[in-house]
Amino acid sequence: MSYDRVKQAAKLTIGTKQAMKTVEQCQATEVFIAKDADPRITIKIVNLCKKCGVKVTYVDSMKMLGKACGIDVGAAVAAVVNE
C-alpha cells in the first residue's frame, strides 16, 4: 500500500507549497497526491513532477494522507525527500 511508503519515508514535505519547492530543487523521489484534493491546487505539482521526472502516486483521501504523514489534518500533497 502506498501509505506505507509515506510512513516509512525518513523525510517528508507536507503541503503543496513545500512539495513544489522540494520538486523544484530536485530533492523529491516521489510525490503523493490525494484524489479528493482540489485539482486547481494539484495540477501545478503534477505538471512539475512530469517535467522533473518525479513519480506521482495518487492516494484515496486527504484525511488518510494526512494521517500517514503523522498530522491531524488532511494533506492534499506530500513529497518524499531524497536524503
UniProtKB/TrEMBL annotation:
One Pfam family cited in the UniProt record for this chain: Ribosomal_L7Ae
Sorted UniProt keywords: Ribonucleoprotein, Ribosomal protein
Domain of life, per lineage: Bacteria
Family annotation (Gene3D superfamilies): 3.30.1330.30
Cellular component annotations (GO), alphabetically ordered: ribosome
Residues annotated as signal peptide: none
InterPro entries assigned: Ribosomal_eL30-like_sf, Ribosomal_eL8/eL30/eS12/Gad45
Domain Ribosomal protein eL8/eL30/eS12/Gadd45: 6-82
The protein, known as: Ribosomal protein L7Ae-like protein
Species this protein is from: Paenibacillus elgii
